[in-house]
Amino acid sequence: MIPLILYDIPSQLEGKHWSSNTVKPRFVLGYKGLPFRVEWVEYPDIAPRMKAIGARQNKVDGREMYTLPVVSDPNTGALITDSWEIAAYLETTYPEKPIFPNKSKGLIHALDTAFNNHRGAASAFPLLRAGEILNERSTEYFVTTMEAIFKQKISEFSPEGPKRDEHWVAIERAMGTCKEWYDEEEGKWLMGNIFSYADILTASRLFLPQEVGMMGSGKSYLLMWRRNAKGFSKDSNESQQDCPIRMIGCQST
After folding, report:
1. What is the mean pLDDT of residues 58-71?
2. Taking the chain, what is the end-to-end CA distance rounded to the nearest angstrom?
3. How far is CA 60 from CA 64, 67, 148, 242, in A?
4. pLDDT digits 0-9 by tens, 13-43
5. Cβ contact 34:96 at 8 Å
6. Cα–Cα dist 64/41, whole Å
7. How far apart are CA 197 and CA 185, in angstroms?
8. Which residue, 12, 1, 22, 6, is CA-closest to 204?
């Protein structure tokens, strides 16, 4: 099998990957055991590079933009944009080790929407730290683009004080709701003993805070939730084995 190609955005972090969006297909590829390699694309190069290979644009807040992740499958000639579409393609094309078991695709999409609605405006909060870990070529482009999308200066996304506190509350509420979903089941995963894309979405939400250092921002509940939620690690002895961030796998060939 020819390795698939995952187009991802590099950073200064060890391993380079950092984005909660591009890590979703990385987790799916790893879980399904599909060989892949990564092509790193700095932010200013995304549009010209994706246009050159024929990738489609994605709609972001009503704007058509070239975005990552994009996956190229040389085995079929497919070129897929958007993490959700990539997951659907990989499930259809490589059905072994399903991520949408029992026709759960619609339900998982609804859960993802519900979580994002709980988080609300706090979704911009992690972008403050994300801009600090990008490579120099990408930082200015990233800041300019995010400010255009959110229609405010990046320094105003989540200033220290009441607004920052509101964002922490929103994040805590969203993560708390997610934990409640897991607590309803007796098994390790959101569907009990059946692993699904819902668990990959949960792992991806914890990935960015962990990678950009939000865990050390004085708010311990994110770390506590990660350690104690079912399916992530029920005690310290399981933490290295049961956390989906480690368990799913995300290593390229």
Report:
1. 87
2. 12
3. 6, 9, 11, 34
4. 878 888 888 999 999 999 999 999 999 999 9
5. no
6. 19
7. 16
8. 22
Please state, in angstroms and rounded to a whole number, the distance separating the CA atoms of residues 188 and 248.
13
Cα 193 to Cα 21: distance, rounded to the nearest angstrom: 25
Q: How far apart are CA 237 and CA 96, in angstroms?
A: 30
Q: Which residues of 174-185 are buried (b: 16+ CB within 10 A; e: fewer)?
A: bbeebbebbeee
Distance of alpha carbon 31 from alpha carbon 250, whole angstroms? 8
Question: Can you give the pTM of this predicted structure?
Answer: 0.81
pLDDT tens digits, residue range 102-158? 999 999 999 888 877 766 656 666 676 777 788 998 998 888 888 887 787 877 777
Question: Sign (positive/negative) of CA torsion 39, 44, 48, 50?
Answer: positive
Q: At what angle do helices 197-212 and 23-32 cross, to 10 degrees?
A: 130
The Cα–Cα gap between 23 and 13 comes to 14
Count of other CB atoms within 10 angstroms of residue 158: 21
C-alpha distance from residue 56 to each of 35, 131, 138, 190, 220 (Å): 24, 25, 21, 32, 40
Rounded Cα gap, residues 234 and 59, in angstroms: 39
Positive or negative, the CA dihedral 144, 150, 152, 158 is negative
For residue 210, CA distances in Å to 8, 13, 29, 98, 112 come to 18, 11, 21, 27, 20
Q: How far apart are CA 239 and CA 67, in angstroms?
A: 33
CA distance 44 to 138: 6
